[in-house]
Amino acid sequence: MQQNDKYIFVTGCAGFIGFHLSMRLLDEGYSILGIDNLNDYYDQTLKYDRLEILKKSKNFIFIKGSIENMELLSSLFKQYEIEKVVHLAAQAGVRYSLENPHAYIQSNLVGFANILECCKEHQIKHLIYASSSSVYGNNKQVPFSVSDRVDQPISLYAATKKANELMAYTYSHLYKLPTTGLRFFTVYGPWGRPDMAYFIFSNAIIKQEPLNLFNYGNMKRDFTYIDDIIESIFRLLEKGLPIDLSPPYKIYNIGNHQPVKLHDFIQVLEDQLGMRANKNFLPIQPGDVQETFADIEDIVKFIDYRPKTNIEDGIRNFVKWFKEYYNLS
């Protein structure tokens, strides 16, 4: 590595989206500085296996550490010439925020404040950060638009993501830091997170265990395939922010714009796995929302890209990886 190489700093690089984005950026010839604390929120083996793939590239540098550690972050920004930041590290999961709220305060609020400070101090060209569709709460107006009021989060996770957007706005306003927040809508695909519904469903079907369907299966989700997410982030990185934004601040929905009923989603999973699910219908859980549906016209117009992976193709790709990774016949 040359001393004057410029890096894209990817936080949460061993996570689901962080891994796929790092792979794409490395394939495109970028140098990546990645950080991840490799916590045990879900199976660490998956994180280490993703990391091993990334480490095969000579243009990838990995730092094991937490974004809550301001001293570490500051030293990285001083040591490496970081041009842009994609901040994906966070304590994920809606339901877990009911059990361990302090993990969300530390990672999602303290950690994000540290990222903002470092980006401000080192005049980063563009900070792209992960928000979430969960900020919409039980919004009754569909599709969800970024112009909708999102002042009633129904989980602490959602509250921290809304707080991130407000914090980013403040830094964009005060310090002209260019920031783009992405409200992700139910991302799925190979190398996904085991705590996500489609992963849990697949395990239950394979093991012929009861498959819990909350709200009696009457949920709708705007499932968005990982490749479509990565293509969108890549184009945003290449293009930057729309010109003449004052402050230089933007939020986008990043979804598929095609909500799928949970019943239909499970049907596709069953077809691809070649097995029937043992369904167990239960009431809705605290923190869950009944439907997510992204209005994506703003981002489609700006980056000239519309997600194109249908649920059948996406689940087929996931199941293929799932069987290979876990050595399932």
From TrEMBL:
- Print the keywords alphabetically: NAD
Membrane-spanning ranges: none
CDD domains from the xrefs? UDP_GE_SDE_e (cd05253)
InterPro entries in the cross-refs? NAD(P)-bd_dom, NAD(P)-bd_dom_sf
Q: Which residues form the NAD(P)-binding domain?
A: 9-317
Pfam families per record: GDP_Man_Dehyd
Q: Which domain of life is it from?
A: Bacteria
Q: Which Gene3D superfamilies match?
A: NAD(P)-binding Rossmann-like Domain, UDP-galactose 4-epimerase, domain 1
Q: Write the protein's name.
A: Protein CapI
